[in-house]
Design a protein that fits this description.
With 100 residues, the protein is of the alpha+beta class. The protein has two helices and seven strands, in the order βαβββαβββ. It has one domain. A seven-stranded mixed beta sheet has the order 2-3-4-1-7-5-6. A hairpin with a 5-residue loop joins β3 and β4.
Length: 100
């Protein structure tokens, strides 16, 4: 399994213009999207944010083994250790023997 998850650390530190709910781990922001004619509509964006610990616990819950968690950003998927400086975590997990 390869899963990309938004970083809760990054959201709190850098996601200006958004409101982070520490209880739910959800970031909320308002943005504008445009249709083919260029007319804009204001919409709410709700983004679930995670820590590496939460990702490990989720994988444990579904019976998968975490192989790696990397700090990444769109277009830059390298094997960097988790940090607060990148917007996403890339989780690599595999099925445990009883799940294969």
């Amino acid at each position: 399994l390869a899963l990309s998850a938004f970083s809760a650390y990054f959201a709190v530190k850098y996601h200006e213009g958004a409101t982070f709910d520490a209880d739910t781990g959800v970031s909320h922001e308002v943005t504008e999207v445009k249709n083919e004619q260029g007319r804009g509509t204001e919409v709410d964006l709700w983004t679930g944010c995670y820590t590496p610990r939460e990702l490990r616990l989720l994988m444990e819950k579904v019976g998968m083994a975490v192989d790696h968690i990397y700090s990444v950003e769109p277009g830059r998927y390298v094997a960097d250790p988790p940090s607060v400086e990148t917007p996403e975590f890339l989780l690599i997990a595999s099925a445990t023997p009883f799940r294969r």
